[in-house]
Design goal:
It comes from Labrus bergylta. By secondary structure, this protein is mainly α. The protein is about 75% helix and about 0% strand.
């Protein structure tokens, strides 16, 4: 999801954190500080989980695979079923290799 937000948009987690920060800045109450701390903690935990599991990268690789196949079909409208199958197989093998490589990648 984060790769979809390169246009300056905030993720839901970032939006909630900013809302909690704004609320705390306006009130300075202990209750709002606790809410801000909780929202920030959730955001940090989510980021750590994504880094440990590599899920963001897997999702990005999956999107690239699907878009690559779609582009091949668009660029080759007369491709035979065998050609399409070969392209799909090639792209899926690349996807699988990239996911396997994540297993040995450092966490940070």
């Amino acid at each position: 999801m984060s790769s979809l937000l390169n246009s300056g948009e905030m993720s839901n987690a970032e939006l909630f954190q900013q809302m909690a920060l704004l609320r705390w800045l306006n009130s300075q109450t202990e209750e709002d500080r606790t809410i801000l701390a909780a929202v920030t903690g959730i955001k940090v935990a989510k980021e750590l989980l994504n880094r440990i599991t590599g899920q963001d990268e897997v999702d990005a690789y999956k999107r690239e695979c699907i878009l690559g196949i779609s582009q091949f079909i668009k660029d080759n409208p007369r491709a035979s079923k065998d050609q399409i199958n070969a392209e799909v197989e090639k792209r899926v093998l690349v996807f699988a290799a990239r996911v396997r490589a994540l297993e040995t990648a450092p966490l940070f």
